[in-house]
Amino acid sequence: MPTVADLARALETAAPLAYQESYDNAGLQCGDSQAEITGVLIALDCTPAVLDEALSRGCNVVVAHHPVIFRPLKSLTGATEVERTLLKALKNDIAIYAAHTNLDNVRHGVNRKLGEKLGLQNLRILAPTSGNLAKLITYVPPTHTDAVLQTLYQAGAGQIGEYSDCSFRSDGVGTFTPGSATQPFQGKPGQPETTAEQRVEVLLPLHRQKPVLRALQQAHPYEEVAYEIVKLENENQEVGAGMIGELPQELTPAAFRQQLRAILGVPVVKHTEYDQPIRRVALCGGAGSFLLNKARAAGADAYVTGDLKYHEFFGPEGDLLLCDVGHFESEQFTSELFQELLTSTFSSTFAVLIAETLTNPVRYDF
């Protein structure tokens, strides 16, 4: 049976912990990483009520979007809901795993799921990151180039957008003199050697640098492998905050807000006044006020997010339709995302269930 560690690896392959924000605390929150999984319950938040549901449905793992442990704990006495949640989980051998801003920040994460639900096309990241890519350059005898590249691809290199197994190679000549204690792939110790080589280049996510270099060392035929890591400042179109896309056809602001209410199941949408047609839509699940200027700069007709403050509605008035649909409501489809990811990875080895317990603390009166 798969273990909690296997589940963590699957989730961190889809949403690497390296892509979480500095303030975040994604990953395994509590529990035995070597415990075998009997079932997984998915929720936006992990609460004592969610743990009760997990117990009743035979699940010993809860996967949540929001971390239970978000700030450092000074005690574990049950004085707060966070402490009560952790104590209940520990007493009942339930592991809690959270994928938060790392799942927000990947291209196929929380915001893409919301964009798809809203029917947006040509979805792309609104605020791509930079500084997390590098170029790996190495030099390989032509007879081994394909084998080395396949190993690098499997270790996580060579991905550009929707294209995998990407590389560049060029022919050249390498020179070297093996030392007396060497066993060279070609040539003899102490004698200068000239040989045909190929310069091979692949794109490398920096968080995969160590495993990719290990793979390179294992696959390369040389005793001493020459390579270069060149850090890039390119924008990473696979990682970043928010999403932007286009509606299949223009809608009036009123029709767009009605569509938001219907798709998200929200009774109200807080919004600015705006009288232009809506076609290009930017969005950010959760609290997204920090992306408002990015949405305006990208030419969005509407920006959909949650947790907006009163004064934040003043700036964009007349520039775009600013919509606050609520934090929970904008992230509610994250549970489906988790379920799809885990069922595709683990097939039918254990049940992957979406919690029926409502964790949204916000209520509306009319």
Automatic annotation (TrEMBL):
GO molecular function, one term: metal ion binding
Keywords: Metal-binding
Xref: Gene3D superfamilies: 3.30.70.120, NIF3 (NGG1p interacting factor 3)-like
Keyword rRNA-binding included in the entry's annotation: no
Pfam families linked: DUF34_NIF3
Source organism, top-level taxon: Bacteria
Residues the entry annotates as binding a divalent metal cation: 65-66, 104, 327, 331
Metal-binding keyword on record: yes
Cellular component GO terms, alphabetical: cytoplasm
Assembly and oligomerization: Homohexamer.
UniProt family annotation: Belongs to the GTP cyclohydrolase I type 2/NIF3 family.
Name the record gives this protein: GTP cyclohydrolase 1 type 2 homolog
Organism from which the protein derives: Hymenobacter qilianensis
Lineage: Bacteria, Pseudomonadati, Bacteroidota, Cytophagia, Cytophagales
